[in-house]
Prior knowledge:
CATH superfamily of the largest domain: Butyryl-CoA Dehydrogenase, subunit A, domain 3
Number of domains: 2
Order of helices and strands: EEEEHEEHHHHH
Number of strands: 6
Strand content: 5-15%
CATH architecture of the largest domain: Up-down Bundle
Helix content: 40-55%
Number of helices: 6
Radius of gyration: 22 Å
CATH topology of the largest domain: Butyryl-CoA Dehydrogenase, subunit A, domain 3
Largest sheet: 2 strands, antiparallel
Structural class: mainly alpha
Shape: flat
Amino acid sequence: MAAFIVERDNPGLSMGKVERKLGVRASHTAEVVLDGCRVPLDNRLGGEPRSDVAPEAVRDRSKGKGPNPLLLLQYSRLTFAAASVGLARAAFEYALDYASQRESMGRPIIEHQSVGNKLADMAMRVDAARLLLWRAGWMVDAGLPLDGAEGSMAKCFGGDVAVWVAQEAVQILGGHGYMEDHPVEKWYRDAKIYQIWEGTNEIQRSIISRALTPHERR
Length: 218
C-alpha cells in the first residue's frame, strides 16, 4: 500500500464545495478535486519493495496468501468505535441525570417502569459496546491479529448503539430533548455518521461474515 503527499499549491489540486451535513458540523468536509495533478515520486509514502520481507510473504493475495493490507482497517476502525461509545455514554448519562431529577406524578420519571427500562437497556448496550472495543484493544496491545474482524465488530456494534442510545435519550427528555437547549439533539444528529464512515455497517457485517468463513480465515 502507498500514500502520496499532495502539496497545497500543487497544480491540478483544488477544493470542491464545502458540504452541509446533518451532524458533526465542526468537521470541515469538502471534495478534493485532482484534475491533471502530477505528484513527484519523492512525495510517495510507503509502497516501496522491502528487502526485509521474505518472498513467500508477498505471494498472490487473491488466493488468500501473504499479508492483507485491508486488515489495517481493522485497527483504524477502533478509533471510530471509541468515539461512538463515548457519544453513547454521554447521551445515556445525560438522560439518566435528567430522569433522576425530572418529576412526573409526584416522583422522578426514572421510577416509571417505561423510562427505567429504557435506561436499563441503554446501560447494557453501552457496556456491551465498550467491552467489544476493549477486547479488540487488548488484542492489539497483546500483538494478536484482528483476523476475526474484531475491529469491524466494535465499530459496527458501537455505531448502532450510539444511534439507538441517542434516540432513546431524546425520547426520555421528550420535548426538551428536541430542543437545542439540551445536547441530546446534537448527539442524535452526530451519531448517524458512525453507521456510515470508515465503512458502512452493512460493509462491516459483510466483513464479519467473511471472517466467520473458515477458508477466509486461513
